[in-house]
């Protein structure tokens, strides 16, 4: 197992290299880079992307003499100032050199500073991380704690009224978009048109630092209840049905019939024999569930509940072409995702020690 883990760890290097290379290459062809963003801010011209709509006077300003022809809105700015901007953002070097320098820095976990926020990328991530950890961790935990027992129960009660109405309920929950459910929760329970039970925004109250330890815990859970519910709603259906179908497949196998014929109780058969085999496929889906909630599904939820997390940070950085944040978070997220994949394989072995990945590869 040690050799397999080592190979997987070594495989992270070319995988991350490929991810960074593809995204870096794509960025070279995207208009409205950091220099254009800086020019737009200096001139107070609003959104830099208006210059790419074609046709009007803004498009006509895209070209100017003195070396400004490469930048939208650079008309009237001295070439020396444009060259200074390029140097500040590192665009005075060829793309290959910039890419190599970026990888060398990332290997030392030096992600540089934000172009427009005057703060290091690491500090920004540390600042936003609690929100994303809250949504990702609690949503994934709740989804598994509810869906696995429910899926097992549905497999045991397959075809009964319980199976039918619970299937209808979770499919209906899956069909509701997360952002729509979040708005519904706000309207119902956050002072919209009905009850003022939960806070409207934020992760903690303004007086959080003055609260007792128990009060801080209560305040934290009071604030995260609605966002976590909104993040979790769509995860129940997939995980519950996956668990149910996995258990149904195992229950029909010959070793289950043999165990029952030996006089073992149904509980012993279910949790002593079926559970270990049936849970393998559920565990295989853990990285996708966690990473999906942690990174992918948080932007809209963070926006609706006024939570300043990694989802909003990545979106705002992409819009502003703040490349140190974009590539820094991409590198960190990619690394975490690959490590979680290895953790998933280790969980396979914990659940079923008979699995040997080294023999499978041999």
CATH secondary-structure class of the largest domain:
Mainly Alpha
Into which percent range does the helicity of residues fall? over 70%
Q: From the helix content, strand content and strand pairing, which structural class follows?
A: mainly alpha
What's the architecture of the largest domain, going by CATH? Orthogonal Bundle
Strand runs, count: 0
User: What distance lies between the first and last C-alpha atoms, to the nearest angstrom?
Assistant: 12 Å
Count of structural domains: 2
CATH topology of the largest domain: MetI-like fold
- Rounded radius of gyration (Å): 26 Å
**Gross geometry:** globular
How many distinct helices?
Answer: 17
Q: Point out poorly predicted stretches.
A: 48-67
Q: What is the typical, i.e. mean, pLDDT?
A: 78
**Element string (H = helix, E = strand):** HHHHHHHHHHHHHHHHH
Family: Belongs to the binding-protein-dependent transport system permease family.
Domain ABC transmembrane type-1: 129-348
Organism: Sulfitobacter pontiacus
Transmembrane segments: 9-30, 129-150, 171-195, 220-243, 278-305, 325-351
